[in-house]
Amino acid sequence: MISRDRLTHGLILKIDEEGQIKEIVFNSLKEKLNLKNKNFSNYIDEGSLKKYFSLLEEAEKDDVVFGREMDLNLIGKTESYILTVLNNLDSDNIIIAANQSEDMIKYYEELMKINNEYVNSLRSNIKENKNKNIPAKDEEIYNEMSRLNNKLVNLQRQLNKQNLQLKAEKEKYRVTLSSIAEGVITADYKNNIVYLNSKAEKMLGWSLDDAKGKKCRDIFKVSIKKNNGHDLELITEENSAVEEDIEIDLASLFQKKEEINNQEAILISKNNNSIPIEFSAAKVVENQGKVIIFRDISERKDNEQRLRKYASTDLLTEVLNRRAGLDYLQEEMNLAEANNFTLSVIFIDVNDLKSVNDNFGHQEGDKLLQQVSNVMQNSLRRNDMVVRLGGDEFLLILPQSDKEAAEKIWNRVREKLKQLSKSNDKDYEISVSHGSAEYSSDYKKSLDQLINKADRAMYEEKKKMKNKDR
């Protein structure tokens, strides 16, 4: 017989075509079970019912259906079992339930022993009855049981082969999942963690032993940025008013969606690190569980950030380039008109840049542009912007500033440029010419007209400076 100390989770049942339990053939559980005449489906967890009925349908066609994992509630708690169904005499089935696939063989051997004992008992009765010249009433049953015994021997060979294949497949998948670059999470139909591969453990900061059985939302914590158009379908009415990043509960999301593909999000690890990830997730139809595959996209996001910077930044001075600067100005003009704000721009021209290039070289001219740019950036408020329009021309964009406020900012820039010129070790003066223009909701001019107005004012100042030098 099987050692009960070694096998604490398993049983063999005989059920009829309606699923009623006719006999508990073997039970290695410590608890006594009162299952007879009850329907076995009552002990199948809700998430495994569909798989159980599918198993019974397969058993009607095949001699044996091997190894289906299901959740059973036999002793007041839900546990995972491997079920195998064997065709028996007439319309009955034998169900073997073991807590591990490796134990399935041992339970099958137990069934073989029970069957052999029954066959040997019948053989002994037949022999005894023949000696007493009593008609062999058991001979027909003996022949049928012998046939079944031969069938069980063949099934055992199949089961051994199937079990070896199953162990090989499990090992192959374990090695594969452990070695891939993506994190893999599986959860059951109750959204409890079942498995993490090594990459998932590393990124999440959780070991499989610590995470197993915990809610998926407590281990795989992800949020998305509301302003990302790609994520609009993940945003519910409840969190649509939230301004910051939105935490996503996959369990709730899966009530509406069957799968999620290539979704960008921020993963919050156990030690509270934020990791940009891309993940895909899907329901497992067979057991209503979930599979999540995710990967770290930090390097990609860094590259995207650099590309965005290159696309919007003047590489020499590291201020906004012309295209990005004019886009920003248009946005601020629209905002000013909508909210009845004022806005000012200052057109800046670096004086004598051509002379510096001709006399000291273009490297010195580039240095001059960088120095002037740094002075302007360090003289502005947080929402003010410096734009290099090209060559020696810059534009200062000053949101919510009238002409008087703009002039104060200009005076600050001019004083710092004077200090810079005094410390210059080259034989040229550092100076700029400027012209300003104000935009308000009643100033019905275009962006180009606003810039041209400031440009003309700058040239008027430059003309006065030249006349003064004569």
Quick structural gist:
This protein has 470 residues and is an alpha+beta fold.
Proper CATH architecture of the largest domain: 2-Layer Sandwich
By CATH's scheme, which homologous superfamily of the largest domain applies? PAS domain
As residue ranges, the low-confidence spans are: 1-7, 228-233, 235-243
Give the beta-strand count.
16
- Helix/strand-derived category reads alpha+beta
The gyration radius over C-alpha positions equals: 40 Å
What's the total helix number?
13
Counted up, domains total 3
The chain-level mean pLDDT equals 79
How would you sum up the global shape?
rod-shaped
Main sheet: strand order:
7-6-12-11-10-8-9
Overview of this protein structure:
The protein is of the alpha+beta class and 470 residues long. The chain folds into 3 domains: 10-173, 2-Layer Sandwich (Beta-Lactamase); 183-296, PAS domain (Beta-Lactamase, 2-Layer Sandwich); 313-469, Alpha-Beta Plaits, CATH 3.30.70.270. The chain has 13 helices and 16 strands. It has helices at 49-61, 101-131, 139-179, 198-204, 208-211, 216-219, 250-253, 298-312, 322-339, 353-360, 362-377, 403-422, 447-469, and strands at residues 10-15, 21-27, 64-73, 78-87, 93-98, 183-187, 193-196, 221-224, 246-248, 259-268, 274-284, 289-296, 342-350, 385-390, 393-399, 432-440. The strands form 3 sheets. A 7-stranded antiparallel beta sheet has the order 7-6-12-11-10-8-9. Strands 2-1-5-4-3 form a 5-stranded antiparallel beta sheet, sandwiched between helices. The chain has a 4-stranded antiparallel beta sheet with strand order 14-15-13-16, sandwiched between helices. Helix 2 runs antiparallel to helix 3, helix 10 packs across helix 11 and helix 11 (362-377) packs across helix 12 (403-422). The longest helix is centred in the middle third of the chain and has 41 residues, at 139-179. The protein starts with 9 loop residues before the first strand and ends with a helix. Mean pLDDT is 79; it is low at 1-7, 228-233 and 235-243.
